[in-house]
Design a protein that fits this description.
363 residues; mainly beta; Immunoglobulin-like; six-stranded mixed beta sheet; 22 strands; flat
């Protein structure tokens, strides 16, 4: 029985030497299921609708959400968009806070999209600015009664006092998924920029979950760029000082982090000071970023491409790593180091190949 395996292994070694890209490095993480609330704007007295969007749905039979919101908003109604099957129910009255949305079905729904729409009324006396609308996943199960985890992305209602108001400028941190121990870069972006000469941002995060490596100015904004002297300082300061207004709507900086543990960690952005060349204060709305760190146990041993099956392609991945033709990361170690000796070798690739070829039942 060894000859077929040796022949296949020889073929794979030949393929390994071809100058082809390694597919797995292009897909280093499993897409995290996400529930997101969209953001809208309006004037006092307006009715505005936010959508609740589901992405990367792995299959849901039961879902219970809690919606909370700023006191200057009130819920008018909540509408089911029939993306999820089963019975849809809500809190008995719209005055309940947090407001509950619930879906209960007999089988999994796997569709993505806007699962519901919640309509708010903005109070007549609401102060202009950003009003948060948050979502919490209270419970979620699939048809096998396995818990389903979702990350969430909260929204906001931006209140303008009159129809002639300009949109509020926004500084936002991006959100990313990654693996423990790897480096990841978040963008800091600016939109609806009215023009500023001085900007001071404060960046904060959980330093037990993340380590800040560096912050980089992208050279888009004029003037002098400075930061806190040490990356361990929290909150970490980013500062731009110029003699004239910068008006671009672009990525203005990047933050590079290393992840220390699995989980969801917020990277918050706040504006300490901002004014234009005439020393007029500028109000800026901020949007925080989220780093979703996936842990190695989410991966199946022998399945680096994470398609749920152990195949010759997986053996090829392990063999390329063993032959030093591909980089080693946490995903590779979690899935390809079959004998758990701390490195990926030809022996690991052979064991994966035996299972793929149905010559062994387990690794």
């Amino acid at each position: 029985m060894k000859k077929p395996i040796v022949g296949i292994l020889a073929f794979i070694l030949t393929v390994c030497c071809l100058p082809v890209p390694l597919h797995i490095t292009a897909a280093a993480t499993i897409p995290m299921p996400v529930i997101e609330i969209t953001s809208v704007s309006g004037q006092t007295g307006d009715e505005v609708a936010v959508s609740i969007i589901m992405q990367n749905n792995p299959g849901v039979a039961y879902l219970k959400l809690k919606i909370d919101y700023d006191s200057s908003l009130s819920i008018v109604r909540a509408d089911n968009n029939d993306v999820l099957s089963g019975t849809f129910t809500t809190s008995k009255t719209t005055a309940v806070k947090p407001y509950v949305l619930q879906w209960m079905g007999a089988s999994d729904s796997t569709e993505n999209g806007a699962i519901a729409t919640v309509t708010f009324r903005i109070a007549e006396g609401a102060v202009a600015g950003d009003k948060p609308v948050t979502v919490t996943v209270e419970e979620c199960y699939n048809e096998s009664f396995d818990a389903v985890d979702f990350s969430v992305s909260n929204g906001r209602v931006t209140v303008n006092t009159s129809s002639g108001d300009e949109p509020f400028p926004v500084i936002a941190a991006s959100s990313v998924d990654t693996l423990c121990g790897e480096e990841v870069t978040l963008d800091i972006s600016l939109k609806d920029n009215p023009g500023f000469a001085y900007l001071k941002l404060l960046i904060d995060y959980d330093d037990t979950a993340l380590t800040l490596i560096e912050a980089s100015d992208l050279g888009i904004i004029g003037g002098v760029f400075t930061t806190s002297k040490e990356t361990t300082v929290r909150p970490y300061v980013l500062q731009w000082m110029g003699v004239s207004d910068s008006t671009g709507n672009v990525r203005i900086a990047t933050l590079k982090f290393r992840e220390l543990k699995a989980g969801i960690t917020a990277v918050s952005v706040s504006v300490a000071e901002c004014y234009n060349a005439e020393f007029g204060d500028i109000t800026i709305v901020t949007e925080n970023g989220i780093i979703q760190v996936l842990s190695a146990p989410q991966y199946k041993l022998g399945d680096p491409d994470r398609d749920g099956e152990i195949t010759v392609s997986d053996a090829l991945t392990a063999l390329r790593v063993a032959a030093k033709l591909a980089d080693v990361n946490e995903l590779i170690m979690a899935t390809c180091d079959v004998d758990d000796d701390g490195e990926v070798t030809v022996s690991d690739a052979l064991r994966i190949l035996r299972v793929a070829a149905k010559l062994a039942n387990s690794l």
